Amino acid sequence: MVNELSQRASLDYVPNTGVTGDNDNVKVPSIEEKHINNMFANAASATAKEHKMTLLEGIRLYPKAIGWSILISSCCAMEGYDVSLVGNFYAFEPFNRKYGVLGSDGTYQVPARWQSGLSNGAQCGQILGLILNGLCTERYGYRPVLMVCLVWLMGVITIFFCAPNIQTLLAAEILAGIPWGVFQSIAINYASEVCPIPLRGYLTCYANFCWGWGQLIGIGVIRSMFDRTDQWAYRIPYGVQWVWPPLILIGVIFAPESPWWLVRQNRIEDAKHSLKRLTSSKRNPEFDLDETIDMIRHTTELEKDMTSGSSYLDCFKGIDLRRTEIVCAIWAIQNLSGNTFSNYSTYFFKQAGLDGTIAYDFAMGQYGINMAGTFGAWFLMSLGLGRRKLLLSGLVGLSISLFVMGFIGLVPDSHKHAASLATGTMMLVWAVNYQLSVGTIAYSLVGEISSRRLAIKTVALGRAAYNVVAIINNVLTPYMINPTAWNWGNYAGFFWGTSCLLCLVYAYFRVPEPAGRTFAELDILFERKISARKFATTDVNAFDITLKHKIHGGKDGFAHDEEKKSTA
After folding, report:
1. pLDDT tens by residue, 80-118
2. Which residues, other chains included, contact 473 with Cβ-Cβ below 8 Å and sequence gap of 6+?
3. What SS3 state is found at 109?
4. What are the backbone dihedrals phi and psi of residue 102, each rounded to the nearest 5 degrees, phi first?
5. Within 10 Å of residue 495's Cβ, how many Cβ atoms?
6. DSSP structure class, residue 286
7. Which contacts qualify for 92-100: CB closer than 8 Å, 24 or more apart?
8. From CA 197, how far away is CA 15, in angstroms rounded?
């Protein structure tokens, strides 16, 4: 296919644009049709070059895009940090003394209803933020929305820091959840749009790494406060959150906008300028800025033929319904494969007698695994393993780990210490498997499966599905584990193991392989309703399709064609 596209790009390639004729009466193409033919030829050439591009060539050509994507993805670390704080503050005596109530045993504890409220408050705020992001980002762009959210978050951190009671903390969690939801969606979409095919999987997955280092710093800060008993023991960890927003904001101010978003707004010259800032064209003499912009334009015009609009309602129409369903399911699978259950490793280590800072040291090890797992997934992808294969094999391993945890529950009480230690260890094994597959690969899959016109809204809906499942899990899991409630203990592993198996069945039949495909090729595969199991082997040519609508150049829509001719 690459050779075919390269051949066509090198010739005076005229695609099927509806211009017909015969030997006696040939219709002379209009100026606009010539522009369209030129766009097709340039797009075909850029597509061929991306298919041939190696990982090293992509790194050399797009080093600035890598840097900007890493900066934007760093926003995700702030949510990981807060999740780590909330979960570990409940076992932190100074925090409980300030925001908890005095129990009959003479100790202070945050009531269960408020623990649930704090844990789920941010999730509810994120759902609101995700929905708003889908409306605002497509209209105003990635950068303006990010800047507003970072300023908003700096104000909300003040509420965390000064909160006089637990009700105020809950309000802060909800308000902070709004920008966190925006960060999750924008990080993935920005990464998928500023880089070429060879880098797309790696940069979208980097958001998961940011989650890991945010969590690791969070639990590290709490551990460093163990020697304090005053109010600063919990205020300092909240105050540390002020470090990130100003630094990231400075970077975002100077960051280039997504060229895909600019093309969708018909700002072609701005898109060229943005792409120029994302690349180092001198390192690759074959790179052509105009060709890459035309590839983006071609995909945009192709999607206009396939979809009727770009609203949330359009995510549930026609071929986009399937894509929305898969994106939502992939995000939900992260929580349905035992994610919440594995977060109780500290609890089981404490049951094994590892009190004080030792249990937190093990938890830090688990968060370290989260970060290392991202690089492990990168290594597996570099060996040629596709997203689908990693997802399926990961779900198999997670199911086995969860069932093993369930069977450990059959160990007699006389060996409770060893059983608790084994359970905590198995949770670390589960974490390694999770981060090598489901936890990391999901970020790449959701960024690639959604169409470009609806990507922001589709990823937002998918992440909202993740949060809905997370809220349900945050309510159910404490009841499963708590000795005063259902008291399932290890037997919860059977529940989550079964849930994981069901996710495996779904993924086998519904989740396709997007690796190595351009967005236009993925559009056509979905439009032709190709089975998920045949995505990787089906040949597709994005340039043998007639566009059904008239393309308008707009203010500068065809300006670069003229500029290219004048410099030839």
Report:
1. 898 888 877 877 788 888 988 888 778 888 887 888 788
2. 335, 339, 340
3. strand
4. -75, 125
5. 17
6. T
7. 92/222, 92/225, 92/233, 92/234, 93/229, 94/225, 94/228, 94/229, 94/230, 94/231, 94/233, 94/234, 95/233, 95/234, 98/231, 98/234, 99/165, 99/166, 99/169
8. 23
